[in-house]
Amino acid sequence: MAKAKVTMEVGNDGVAVITFVNPPVNALAIQIFAGLKEKWNEAAMRNDVKAIVLTGYGGRFSGGFDINVFEKVHKTDDVSLLPDVSVDLVMNIMEDGKKPAVAAVEGLCLGGGLELALGCHARIAAPRTQLGLPELSLGVLPGSGGTQRLPRLIGLPKAIDMMMTSKPIMSEEGEKLGLIDAVVPSKELLKVARQWALDIAERRKRWMRSLHRIDKIGSLSEAHEVLKLARKQVKQTARNMPQHLACLDVIEEGIVHGGYNGVLKEAKVFEDLVLSDTSRGLVHVFFAQRATSKVPNVTDIGLKPRPVKKVAIIGGGLMGSGIATSLVLSNIFVIIKEINPEYLQKGIKTVEANIRGLVARKKLQQDKANKAFSMVKGVLDYSEFKDVDMVIEAVIENVPLKQQIFIDIEKVCPPHCILASNTSTIDLNVIGKKTSSQDRVIGAHFFSPAHVMPLLEIIRTEKTSAQAILDLMAVGKTIKKVPVVVGNCTGFAVNRTFFPYAQSAQFLANLGVDVYRIDAQIISFGLPIGPFQ
Fold first, then answer.
1. Catalytic status, residue 173
2. DSSP string spanning 425-488?
3. Is residue 303 part of a domain?
4. Which domain holds residue 513?
């Protein structure tokens, strides 16, 4: 892996282009901050430099702060490992520096990357650049001035929404909001940014320090109303998450006492949150989720996933229709098999209703919905199974029925076809016992509603081939799931965890504890609903 570094090139036009290099996403490692400070100070002192452009290497600005540093802090409880970026670099050296700076952003501009861009005096973006502050999803808050500068550029309601949800926006929307000064084609990005920086230096454009702006904040009473509503929503949607309310408190500090005080409070609260149990847990989840894509003796032996273009689903009930919805939305052709025309019609209509629901909620465009409708077909027999790449059985939890289905599909499907079951608990060795193709038998356990829930539990037996596992993992990623490969036993991983949870609740109820009290305790602990509800 290339060593993280910062480079600087000074052109004949007097613009210093400072680039951080840390592929693949230019994560802001400690040495990047040290390099930025060094190059910025050099540019400030050089007489041949009139202005600065900040950009990232390889078509990406930055994916944000290097999260490995959080892991080190969690292991040592030493917050001094965190660099002083907010006051020392972004505010003192960049924003309050004597030479104007323009951020040229492309691809990704997230977290600490966006905060560096906010510290510049203008931001030029390539089309469809992602802009966001997702720090709350890691149990912390934006720690380099983001809580103060973003509301001053785009207004309080939208800034709060971006931070509370951790969801990015595109540069086109950013331009409308005032976060981005101009969106230009990628090949013109540096040229426009250089000229913009010179225009500021020569007073043809305004020299804007984000932290000093107040025009988008509104009156104090309006700001208090917005914050009051945000706190009310957070108490419902992010129960037991300290970072959300802490972030709102820090935003309020800056509005009431000024941006500089807000930045100082932000830095202190950031250090407190980094050491919280919530941050430790969410950083663990972040790395664990990424580790799921690495499976020993499957992903590291040189195999390539085979294309899966057509999938047959046996059973068009709640799970079958949900799985079908997920597949057609990702351009995979689906055949749904049912036992009679009435059930088949109901299954197809459920898929269509799922897709229409996404259109109604503006999560899917109508033309993409129309394409999805055309990708599903209903059948009552196995005659169309001769060219499918995968079959997913999604019938009721009945062992003889599942065994018979696997005997039938082995006869009619091509020899490369993956034979998958959506069983939630039954041992796959039992389901595939009467088939001879044991290497193609695998579990594909979706969760209800299958087109919404992100987890896909992939169950391997001792005989499942590495190729079948890799293919199903690839399908999972294509349909935007998080595929987690687990071993085969009754209940697999998820339900083996769930069984004792549900049983404990039932034991308590049998001992006479009020079921409403049990549910209330679980909700207070942080789960969305209790076991009885």
1. no
2. SS-HHHHTTT-S-GGGEEEEEE-SSTTT--EEEEE--SS--HHHHHHHHHHHHHTT-EEEEE--
3. no
4. 500-525
Q: For residue 46, give the 3-state DSSP assignment.
A: coil
Are 182 and 328 found together in one domain? no
Q: Which contacts of 156-159 are long-range, i.e. CB under 8 A and separated by 24 or more positions? A: 156/216, 156/217, 156/218, 156/222, 156/223, 156/226, 156/227, 156/251, 156/255, 157/226, 159/251
Same-domain check for residues 329 and 225: no
Distance CA 131, CA 395 (A): 43
- Listed in sequence order, the residues at least 6 apart from 517 whose beta carbon sits closer than 8 Å to its beta carbon are none
Which ranges constitute the DSSP H helices of 46-111?
68-76
The CATH number of whichever domain residue 438 belongs to comes to 3.40.50.720
Q: Which of the residues 95, 106, 135, 253 is marked catalytic?
A: 135
380 CB neighbour count, 10 Å cutoff: 12
Mean pLDDT on 354-372: 94
What is d(CA 86, CA 372) in angstroms, rounded to the nearest whole number?
47
Same domain, 406 and 318: yes
Q: Is the pLDDT of residue 12 over 60?
A: yes
Q: Are residues 318 and 452 in the same domain?
A: yes
Closest by CA to 57, choosing from 3, 131, 10, is: 3
* Domain match, 26 and 51 both: yes
The burial class, CB within 10 Å (0-12 / 13-18 / 19+), for 70 is buried
Give the pairing type, strands 441-446 and 455-459. antiparallel
Residue 222 known to be catalytic: no
Catalytic residue among 95, 115, 252, 457: 115
Task: Give domain status of residue 395, yes or no.
Answer: yes
Kindly compute the dihedral angle of the four CA atoms of residues 69, 71, 77, 80, in this order, to the nearest 10 degrees: 0
In 274-316, DSSP assigns E strands to 310-314
What is the DSSP-derived secondary structure letter of residue 424?
A: S
* pTM over cut 0.90: no
Assigned domain for 298 exists: no
Reduce the DSSP state of residue 123 to 3 states and report it: strand
Structure tokens belonging to residue 270: 């950031």
Neighbours of 47 (CB within 10 A): 6
**Pair 355, 225 in one domain:** no
Residue 49, C-beta contacts closer than 8 angstroms, at least 6 positions apart = 10, 14, 15, 16, 43, 99
Residues 18 and 36 in one domain: yes
Total number of domains constituting the chain: 3
Amino acid at 273: L
The pLDDT of residue 1 is 47
Mean pLDDT for all residues in the chain: 96
Phi, psi values for residue 419, rounded to 5°: -105, 100
pLDDT per residue over 176-234, tens digit each?
999 999 999 999 999 999 999 999 999 999 999 999 999 999 899 999 999 999 999 99
Domain assignment present for residue 196? The answer is: yes
Do 14 and 138 reside in the same domain of the chain?
Answer: yes
